[in-house]
Sequence to fold (192 residues):
Amino acid sequence: MRVVFLQDVPGVAHGGDVRTVKDGFARNYLIPRSLAVPATQDALRRVDRLKKQAEEDRLKAIQDMRTLAEQLNNAQVNIEMRAGTNGRLYGSVTNAIVAEKLSEMTGREIDRRAVAIGEPFRQVGLYEVDVRLHPEVEARVKVLVYPSGTDPNAVLAQSESQPAEGAAPQAEPAAQASESSEAGETTKEETV
Fold:
C-alpha cells in the first residue's frame, strides 16, 4: 500500500515521504496513529506542504534535544544503592534506573534505551555514561553510585582518588589468590 507519511517514523521514513509499505503495517499502525495517510491524489498534492512542516518539526526537535544535551553534559546523577562492605552492590544499576533519575532531574521523559550502559553497574563508584537523545545529539553524564546511608560527596572524593591507585592493586590480589590456590592444590596432591 502506498502511503504519505505525515510525521517522521524512525527507521521507516521522514514526514512528507511517499512510500510503499505492507498493508497490515499501514492499516494497523501508521494510519490509526495518524503517522501516514493513503496516497490518494489529494494527499499527493499536500506532499510539499507536509515535507516543509516535517522539516520544521525535525529542526525544532533537534534544537530542543541540543538544549537538553547542554543541560545534561557533565551533569552528575547520584544513585543510592544497598552495598556490602567491599563496595559490591546488592543488585545493579541499569539504564532504566539512570533514565529515571535523569527524567526526575530534567523534568522531561528520557527513554531508557537512550542511556548507553554496556553492563549494569554492580560496584560503588563514579561512571561516565553516554545518553543518545537524538540520532544527531548525544550527551555525557556522570553517574555516582554510592552505598545507602553514606554521604555521596565522601564516596565521590574516594572514587576520584582511587582510580589510578586502586585499579592495579585490586587486580593483583585476585591474581595472587589464584596463584596461592594453585600452590595449595599442588601441596595437597604431594601430601596425598
